[in-house]
Design goal:
Blueprint: H1 2-45, H2 49-104, H3 108-127, H4 139-147
Organism: Pampusana beccarii (Western bronze ground-dove)
Coiled coil: 2-102
Keywords: Coiled coil
């Protein structure tokens, strides 16, 4: 128990140190950005009013360009994710169609019996908890019922 607690404490310490390091890096980046902004502000104060306006516009254009690039990068990531999800959806739709096709081959009478058994199983679930016994050929039907 003591070793487990020591291991947990070491894990927490390591995570904390990593978090502190990440925060220090973030603070350093913010300091650098603040220094740049202060220098830009001091430079703009030394300029004529027309030059100050032009400088301000240049700064805003730069900021908007960087923001635009970040948004384009995010859009590309989202489009890649969308394509991946569409591929997965097609795969799952194909599996569902294959499963439904295999179910269509089951004789109608057996399907009626399975539906009656399904109702009985649903009633039993209220009274019992535990393992369920089933035939191997009934596995796709059970999986489908679990999903729906």
């Amino acid at each position: 128990l003591l070793r487990l607690l020591e291991a947990q404490l070491q894990d927490q310490r390591r995570e904390h140190e990593e978090e502190v390091e990440a925060l220090k890096n973030e603070v350093d980046a913010m300091r650098e950005e603040l220094e740049k902004q202060q220098q830009a502000f001091l430079q703009s104060l030394q300029l004529s009013p027309e030059a100050q306006v032009e400088f301000g516009l240049q700064q805003e254009i730069t900021r908007l360009t960087n923001e635009n690039l970040d948004l384009k990068e995010l859009l590309e990531k989202l489009e890649k994710n969308e394509k991946k999800l569409k591929k997965q959806l097609k795969i799952y739709m194909k599996k569902v169609q294959d499963f439904e096709a295999s179910q269509a081959m089951v004789p109608a009478e057996r399907r009626r019996n399975e539906r009656n058994m399904q109702v009985a199983v649903q009633r039993k679930e209220k009274d019992f908890q535990g393992m369920l016994e089933y035939y191997k050929e009934d596995e796709p039907l059970l999986i489908r019922n679990l999903i729906t």
